[in-house]
Amino acid sequence: MIEKLLIGTYTHKSSEGIYELELDTAAKKLQNLTLVGRSGNPTYLVQSKANKVYAIDAESADGKKIGGLKAFDASSRPFTEIDKYLANGTSPAYVTVDEARQLVYTANYHMGVVTVYKIAADGTLTQTDQAQHTGKGPLPEQADGPHPHFADLTPDNRIVVCDLGNDTVYVYDVSATGKLSEVSRFSCEAGFGPRHIVFNPETDKAYLAGELSSKVSVLDYDRKSGSFSLSQTIKTIPDSWTEHNGAAAIRITSDHKYIYVSNRGFNSLATLAIQADGSVQLIDQTPAEGDFPRDFNFNSDESFIILVNQNTDNATLYSRDAASGKLTTVQKDVTVPEGVCVKLEY
Ligand SMILES: O=C1O[C@H](COP(=O)(O)O)[C@@H](O)[C@H](O)[C@H]1O
């Protein structure tokens, strides 16, 4: 079977935007990398059920940075650009679609804001709200101010925002018209650097990756109050690793048995086994076969993981054993320029 992946990239070097990559599951092979959408630094993207792709876009005009989203109709190759929603300032780091409300959310790391857009019938966007975060963390560089890195849905359809800069996880209610109202704030340990979060909707356990601390925290999500409480924190790298590491993507299997976290620096995929009580144990480290694995994702039946290494311009393909969670490298050194986002197409 051929499955197709969309790859978001930086465009600092040779990349020109969004690429499509095929996975041949029978041959266990990644192949046919094709440029499908030209965009500036499309570092994250999402495909809607209406087959529109919303991707981060960064441009510069008169020496000034402008950033936001580009929208594409993905029913042809290459994609057809249908909208561009750019504002003064740096581009966001994360984008997702809320299908039920027909909204799009972005988290803008550099500007410290979370933005909501309404999707019109033709797929174009209109901004409906924006929340400005404040505060900072203990580290001089990446925690010098608010840095929202992730804004996506909770299992009960609120929005959860991970702010890496001020060590806070926010929960917002969102109205049908796209207005945000804050529900709760969870404070991580100082310097944790919350980056991305995943949920087990059956237990309401949440698993939070901390970029700056290279840790995962297990949180309990209370739907009644819309708030989190801390249950466990573990490292995603060995204590013996003293050089730089930044935890990046976190993904959970659909059977809620395993979590994988990419380590940029230690350059691995950490495998965490979820125990019966929802706690986690670090059981394995699999080499990324490249430098700076910012993102990875599963194929449709989760028998493969596809990972992209930003600094070495390559993708790695692993087969995954569903029972043990064990990863086996089946292909490496697949050329993918500046890859930082991996999404399986519908
Ligand atoms: O994971 C990270 O993301 C931030 C935000 O990405 P950007 O493309 O909006 O700059 C990045 O600055 C940081 O270095 C990196 O670790």
From TrEMBL:
Which InterPro entries does the entry mention? Answer: Cycloisomerase_2, Haem_d1_sf, Lactonase_7-beta_prop, WD40/YVTN_repeat-like_dom_sf
Please give one Gene Ontology molecular function term for this protein: 6-phosphogluconolactonase activity
Pfam families tied to this protein? Lactonase
> Which Gene Ontology cellular component terms are annotated?
cytosol
Where do the record's region annotations for Disordered lie?
A: 128-150
UniProt superkingdom: Bacteria
Family affiliation: Belongs to the cycloisomerase 2 family.
**Protein name (record):** 6-phosphogluconolactonase
Naturally occurring in which organism (per UniProt): Secundilactobacillus collinoides
Per the UniProt record, the lineage of the source organism begins with:
Bacteria, Bacillati, Bacillota, Bacilli, Lactobacillales
